[in-house]
Structures are given as C-alpha cells and as structure tokens.
Amino acid sequence: MFTRITSYTLYGVDAIKVDVEVHTARGSPQFNIVGLPDKAISESRERVRAGLINSGYKFPLERITVNLSPADLRKESPAFDLPVAMGILIATGQVKISDLESIAMVGEISLDGTVNRVRGLLSVADQCSKDGIRTLLVPQDNAYEAAVIQKVRVIPITSLGQAIAFLSGNSEVPSVQVDLAEIFSLNG
C-alpha cells in the first residue's frame, strides 16, 4: 500500500513543502527512510516504532519505505515523525482517513506517542497558507506560534492517538486562535 502526507522542513528561515511518501510491501521486515535525511530523521525510525507500539498500534512486520520528497533537499528535523507514523498507519490499513489533500502535519513523536514541539512553525504555517493547505496539525506546546498565520486552521496535538482521532473524525479538537490586535498592543 501507498500513502502521501504533506509536511514541511526549514531551509534557513523559509519552510519548504515535503511529501512524506510511505510504501509498505510484503517481504523481510525493513524500515528505510530515503530522501537525504540527516541523523535526527534516521533516528526517527526508533521513535516512530516505539511511539506506534506504545500508542496501542502494531508496528508492521513488512518492508516499509519512506521517501521524503524532494529527494535533493537535505531534511534536518525530527518534525517528520508525526507524518511518518501516520503514513505507516494509513498504508497498513490500521487507520482510515479519507481526505489528506488540504492537511499538513509536523511534530516529533516521543517513545510514548506524545507529540513534542518543533522549530519554525511560523514559517511552516505561512508557507501552508501560500500552498493552499487549510489545516495544519502541530504540537500543542508551540501551536500559538503557527496560529499567528490566520489563513490556516491550526490544530494543537498532544499525542499520536489524538491526531488519529481528529483526522478520522472521531474527536473534535478546537483550533488555536490568536488575537493579533492584543499581541501588537502589548508590544506597542
């Protein structure tokens, strides 16, 4: 099976769209991440594996290939953990999510499935608005940073389980709202 999830990486201060493509197939169990990942992303395999298991899901005993596209762009961040984990669950049929076209997600997953903060959410949300992404799932700990960009619905996520429940329509998570007038009056 195959699935594609939209995510973003930072290049300087700019965010660049990255397609997280997940393919699963029968064969000897392997979990490979390709597309010029750095060490933090290579370590993602262990975080994702433990996060899935400790969230009550099965880590598939299949051949798993994750491609971070475009492949010629170096990716430096654990922010791909959430889309990689979600892609594995969708590709293996453990989770059914119908519409991912206008959704992007970023977040590091801890070993217990908690979604941890990542860098650069203001840039990510800004690029999402330019790319036509309507909903962005982000770690709750720094969701307000992304919510400054008001053209994107920012969903604060605390765990892999909460992200799955939201995306599958089993749970409503209120979006984060920021009052820009209040922010600017405080800095005034």
UniProtKB/TrEMBL annotation:
Show the stretches that span the lipid bilayer: none
Task: Report any Pfam family annotated for this entry.
Answer: ChlI
Q: What is this protein called?
A: Magnesium chelatase family protein
